[in-house]
Specification:
Blueprint (H helix, E strand, L loop, with lengths): L1 H33 L2 E4 L2 E4 L7 E7 L6 H13 L4 H5 L1 E7 L7 H11 L3 E4 L3 H11 L3 E5 L7 E5 L2 E5 L5 E6 L4 H11 L1
Parallel strand pairs: 3-4, 4-5
Antiparallel strand pairs: 1-2, 3-8, 6-7, 8-9
Helix pairs in contact: 2-6
């Protein structure tokens, strides 16, 4: 009987520990999933550098003819409805998946063209591959024979939204109107 009680008590303690620890383990896993280190014109950045700010991340490349400019313009347009304090608490991060063509200087200029609170960043192909895989996004170099561009980059088009604590909130697809982006951001400001 004592053995049965000891086993039952051990089981209850283990179950209680799992219930208590599980949210912390889940939080750690989410943090690792969305973590990154990237290069910018001002040095290295990581996701933790944006704590205290609402963060919107977009993967693309500066030579993109339509999808990237449209998505970044929609995000910038959605920000027009917010006041100065809210805008001060916001950062947009444009991550280039074309590090061979997109210099850090070019990325910074491109990002700032859409909004002063946008930052341009990139890294090595290996690091970008790791980050995009963890985010569940996709990109692929597509050769363009006879084109002055030589290649384009096919990529998914999502805006990833994080709250001020750095927690992932949602992803918004390319076809979303600025009003939907605005409504999503209102929930996290």
């Amino acid at each position: 009987m004592k053995t049965f009680l000891k086993l039952t008590l051990s089981f209850l303690v283990a179950a209680l520990l799992i219930v208590i620890i599980s949210p912390y383990v889940d939080k750690y896993k989410e943090h690792k999933k969305y973590d990154f280190t990237l290069d910018t014109i001002n040095g290295k950045i990581s996701k933790d550098d944006f704590k205290g700010k609402v963060l919107a991340i977009y993967f693309g490349y500066t030579s993109c003819p339509d999808v990237c400019p449209t998505s970044l313009s929609s995000l910038a347009f959605a920000l027009k409805s917010f006041d100065k304090k809210e805008i001060a608490d916001f950062r947009g991060l444009f991550i280039s998946v074309d590090p061979n063509r997109d210099s850090l200087e070019n990325l910074e200029e491109y990002a700032k063209y859409f909004h002063p609170n946008f930052i341009g960043a990139t890294s090595t192909k290996e690091n970008i591959d790791d980050i995009t895989k963890r985010y569940g996004t996709f990109y692929k170099k597509v050769e363009l024979e006879g084109s002055a561009m030589n290649y384009s980059v096919s990529h998914t088009s999502f805006i990833y939204i994080f709250d001020k604590k750095g927690d992932f909130v949602t992803k918004i697809d390319h076809f979303s109107a600025p009003k939907k982006i605005q409504e999503t951001l209102e929930k996290v400001f």
